[in-house]
Amino acid sequence: MSGPGSPLRTPQTVLISGAGIAGPALAFWLHRHGFAVTVIERAPELRTGGYKVDIRGVAIDVVERMGLLPDVRRAGTDMQTGAYVNDDGERIATLPADIFGARVGRDDEIMRSALVRLLHDRTKADVEYVFGDSITSLTEHEDGADGRDTGQGGVEVTFERGAPRRFDLVVGADGMHSTVRRLAFGPEEPFVRHLGAYISAFSMPNELALDREELYHLIPGKMVCAYSSAGDPAAKGLLAFRAPRLSYDHRDRTQQVALLENAFAGDGWQVPRLLEAAREAPDLYFDAMSLIEMDRWSRGRVVLLGDAAHCASPASGQGTGIALVGAYILAGELAAADGDPVAAFERYETAMRGYVAVNHALARKYAKEMTVNSRWQIRLRHLMLRILPHLPWKKLIAKKIAEEVQRAAHAITLKDYPLRAAAPASAATPTPGSAGATASGSRPGPSPSPAAARE
Predict the structure, then answer these.
(1) How far apart are CA 231 and CA 74, in angstroms?
(2) Most C-beta atoms within 10 A of its C-beta, which of 45, 50, 111, 182?
(3) pTM
(4) Could you give the CA distance from residue 422 to residue 427 in angstroms, rounded to a whole number?
(5) Which residues are 167's β-sheet partners?
(6) Percent of the chain residues past pLDDT 70, beyond the cut
(7) Other C-beta atoms within 10 Å of 396: how many?
């Protein structure tokens, strides 16, 4: 058996479902530890829609270890201000954007689309990407009776389009509505904890001439936001509303738009324009704000990562950070355990559980605070924000606002994992008859048009 830091004698093969953030981040680290990696994605190409995401705390350290921090800095949103507006569009209170985002120190913010591209660009030469296909079944095969690797073990995987293939390990990094989780653990309903709200994000024309500014408008039980980020001539819209768990097909765009139109019918300010933009947007994202809570994130040779395992919802502002940290730890523990899934998955879960729990608690708190229930509560929030810039202790208040988020962002300590020699490029080449692309280029296959969902 090879020791830590040495090359794997035969690179273990890993199939990752999901080419959002968690999947490619894991692929990056697995390749550097000597594994041969395939990433499969249902969409025909990278899903580059979504909204701006924060990278805070320990996640910044992971990005730095990946060598991506300069790229993230260059691609940052460079948001300058945030403001609340009334029904007439008048700015009631304007504050620095970092206060709205609870960012301090090295924290940064980047569009999800930019981060997805960075991760793909950094891994596409070393990792096999298969677009336009999806997993349909997982069948695990045992090793020898004495536990020895006979070469017959692994997971037999079938696909919607490609020929069956066998992998040593399978990772579900395919989001809150994970296909891998459903196949390995059953329907998602027992794991979903609805936080009482829905959220949508989409591109829209920058008719408000916003320049690195975000505008918020509150309606009882709802929140409306429009913003622009650095280097993007378009703007982004965001709509959130309180509702019990609704019955709809999460892949049906028509149903999603209908739910938005019903929730915001008759509302003022820029709402009619935002609804029109949502109808036309090529990157519409719509989903419930929910947590995923599971007793275990692995079963045999199958393991879950990111939102598939422990979605913290947009309310936490921490989903991207948790995905990046989880990818680093899962890959590191697999390498430290010489690919033994039992030991690696156990240590991965032990390391991540407390971190996830703190961020789930943060999500429950902020899901309630994103919207307010009455006009007088809206007026009170406006008043507090209006007087904040004039208070002598405003910096202390701003620090206090950020403390809870920062505590959650730092609620884990990273280990150092010695890197193995990278797997040879040929290890990632598809077998004859397989679906997909070579490591040096992705070949999209036919697939339904994807929604720009976060992972």
Answers:
(1) 10
(2) 50
(3) 0.89
(4) 10
(5) 155
(6) 87
(7) 10
Rounded to the nearest integer, the mean pLDDT of the chain is: 88
Mean predicted confidence (pLDDT) in 92-99: 89
Are the C-beta atoms of 406 and 102 separated by less than 8 Å?
yes
144, two tokens: 């020898």
Placement of tokens 């007088």 in the chain? 376
Residues in the chain: 455
Helices marked H in 33-76 — which ranges?
Answer: 58-65, 69-74
Alpha carbons 105 and 35: distance in angstroms, whole number:
35
C-alpha pair distances (Å), 281 with each of 253, 278, 314, 370: 11, 5, 20, 24
Beta bridge partners of 155: 140, 167
CB-CB contact of 292 with 305 (8 Å):
no
Q: Characterize the bridge pairing of strands 13-17 and 169-172.
A: parallel
Task: Give, in degrees to the nearest 5, the angle at Cα 333 between 331 and 335.
Answer: 70
CA atoms within 13 A on the CB side of 354: 8
Confidence check: pLDDT of 73 > 50: yes
CA gap 117, 200 in Å, rounded: 21
Residue 92 neighbours by CB distance under 10 Å: 18
Q: 247-254 — which CB contacts under 8 Å span 24+ positions?
A: 250/177, 250/287, 251/448, 251/451, 253/284, 253/451
**Is the confidence at residue 132, as pLDDT, over 90?**
yes
pLDDT in tens, 262-315: 999 999 999 999 999 999 999 999 999 999 999 999 999 999 999 999 999 999
Tokens at 136, concatenated: 């349909």
CA–CA dist 328, 256 (Å, integer): 34
The pLDDT of 440-450, averaged and rounded, is 32
Q: Cα–Cα distance between 219 and 199 in angstroms, integer? A: 14
